[in-house]
Amino acid sequence: MNRKVRNLLGLLFGFAAIWLILSSIGILIPFGEKGELIRSLATTLRQYYIMEDEANRMADLVETNYTSGKYFMDVTREQLWKDINEDLHSICNDEHLLFVSSPDIIEYAKNRIENIDVYNDADRITSNADHHGIIEAKMIDSNIAYLRLDRFANILYGKDALLETLNTLKDASKMIIDLRHNNGGVSEQAQILFSYFTPHDDSMLINADYYRYNDSTKEFWTLKGIGGKSFKREDVCILTSGETFSAAEGFAYDMKHHGKAIIVGERTRGGAHSVDWKILADHYVLRIPVGRGIHPVTGTDWEGVGVQPDIVISSSQALDEALRILREGPKSDSQSKNPPHRCRIWAGDEFVTMAVF
């Protein structure tokens, strides 16, 4: 063996030793991890992502990019997850879809998947810190209630706080719900709030989510025991902005299409899909949209298009416009009329479809 060969082999062994040391402490990606990750990611996308065509296209893309060597120079997990996340979003604009490698997010996802008690304990601390998303509740004038919600909290901690807050506003005959800074949260909390506006009807189908991976549907109905009071549509305004997202959009969408509120402000972000969490190759997390809405009135959801306000106005002016509407009444134009819609309601032993004005 000549000197050049010996030197080359020495360099290779030295490089391999350094790589093994750095990968053992998490600085570089260990040998074999990329292949395991890509196989797991592609399988998970094809099985679980709600839109089958996009699921297959995303899976095909990451497999092709791995085989062609696109990810070869990604020697750290941060480089790799950023490249893969960008590739996924080149096909799919779903804002709920997220691929990442982060110890904090991995721990959060593990708690969501494996240990609900730990997750709930952490969530309770967060929830208490911002009073379960309830930022402000007050009376404006003598009859208009104002409620600002920046998050729909876990119902284990947020339900009582929400109902107690609503009780302080019980004398109001008109209401403003401010969702301009609400990025979503737990759909069941939104279900409780919707039920507050339907106090005498526990048989209304609010919305439903369809899950492709197991061909099932989860329905959200109005709830018993919430209390609340009935309002006319023109006596409730919901404020929205381009920041309003996810469960907050769902509440606005449901209130709008069930004829229970006037939406005032800006078109919302457009994130309707419900999500699940998957841990891949031990060091990566996929937040994957697994369910899509099937609304009983519209037959669809707001994914990618957002919730269109009845009154389109800058979010900074939405509160003033809502106050004008509640004090003076809606303008007699097409934006503020309450068109009839068709709603699916349980009539004791069967569903009936009826027009609601």
What report would you give on this structure?
- This protein is an alpha/beta fold and 357 residues long.
- The chain folds into two domains: 13-112, no CATH class; 130-271 and 306-356, 2-enoyl-CoA Hydratase, Chain A, domain 1 (Alpha-Beta Complex).
- It has helices at 3-24, 33-48, 52-68, 77-91, 103-114, 116-129, 155-168, 187-196, 247-257, 315-328, and strands at residues 98-100, 134-140, 144-149, 174-178, 205-211, 216-221, 236-240, 262-265, 274-280, 284-293, 311-312, 341-346, 351-356.
- A six-stranded mixed β-sheet has the order 2-3-4-7-8-11, with helices on both faces. Strands 1, 5, 6, 9 and 10 form a five-stranded antiparallel β-sheet that branches. Strands 12-13 form a two-stranded antiparallel sheet.
- Helix 2 runs antiparallel to helix 3 (52-68), helix 7 (155-168) runs parallel beside helix 8 (187-196) and helix 8 packs parallel to helix 9.
- The longest helix is centred in the N-terminal third of the chain and has 22 residues, at 3-24.
- Residues 5-25 and 333-357 have low confidence and may be disordered.
Which SSEs are present, and which pair or pack?
Layout: H1 3-24, H2 33-48, H3 52-68, H4 77-91, E1 98-100, H5 103-114, H6 116-129, E2 134-140, E3 144-149, H7 155-168, E4 174-178, H8 187-196, E5 205-211, E6 216-221, E7 236-240, H9 247-257, E8 262-265, E9 274-280, E10 284-293, E11 311-312, H10 315-328, E12 341-346, E13 351-356
Helix pairs in contact: 2-3, 3-4, 5-6, 7-8, 8-9
